[in-house]
Amino acid sequence: MAGRPGPRGRPDQDVESRVRPVSTESHTDDVEVTEPESTGVELDADTAEPTERKAPTGVRRHLGAILLIVALVASAGVAAWLYFFQFRTDLQVNADAQKVALDAATTGTTALLSYSPDTLEQDFTEAKSRLTGDFLDYYTQFTEQIVTPAAKEKQVETSAAVVQAGVAEMNPDSAVVLVFVNQTTTSKENPDGAFAASAVKVGLTKVDDRWLINTFDPV
Questions:
Q1: CA–CA separation, 102 vs 179, rounded Å?
Q2: What does each C-alpha distance from 35 to 30, 43, 124, 144, 209 come to in angstroms?
Q3: Among residues 119, 194, 191, 109, which one has the least CA distance to residue 151?
Q4: Confidence (pLDDT) at 94
Q5: Could you give the CA distance from residue 51 to residue 191 in angstroms, rounded to a whole number?
Q6: Domain-by-domain residue ranges, the chain?
Q7: pLDDT for 83-93, tens place per residue?
Q8: pTM of the complete model
Q9: Could you give the C-alpha distances from 22 to 8, 15, 18, 102, in angstroms and in order?
Q10: What superfamily in CATH does domain 102-218 come from?
């Protein structure tokens, strides 16, 4: 009878030994081992999905950048076209108009201040063809009443040369030119001649596509 409890005790121990390995800790260990593996797979899946979604976005951004560059280049091309074909054309037209006005002022000044007692009528007629308005009236009266009698009596002869000139103001129908003149005058009383340098502000107006002098003011 003393030996029977032994066998009964062994089955209990065997059961305990069989139950202990299948414990909560052992089960938890199994879960902990498998959990990182499943988590790793899930992370891979999560990271793969956004990569597939971001690819079209990256392409769209890249394409948008290209289109923006193309638009900027096109805008620059349009601006360059406007500059060279419109703005530069305006500058050229303005430069041409300034040249015409400058020529009218310089040649007109030379004609106004140059005359000889032998060719007074011809010289004054040439000068008056370059004048207009009130100044034309004044010049006609002044040459007829003052200059002609004195030039004939004293044999006054003047010769003017423009040494420098520049456009001070430029408008579509008017301009102002600053003219620097050297003038030599001879007469019976002074056959050796007298030299004078002066500056004149010449005002011009456009009449029938011609630039004519309408003011003549010494500076």
A1: 9
A2: 8, 12, 116, 121, 97
A3: 119
A4: 81
A5: 103
A6: 102-218
A7: 444 544 444 55
A8: 0.59
A9: 22, 11, 7, 114
A10: VirB8 protein (3.10.450.230)
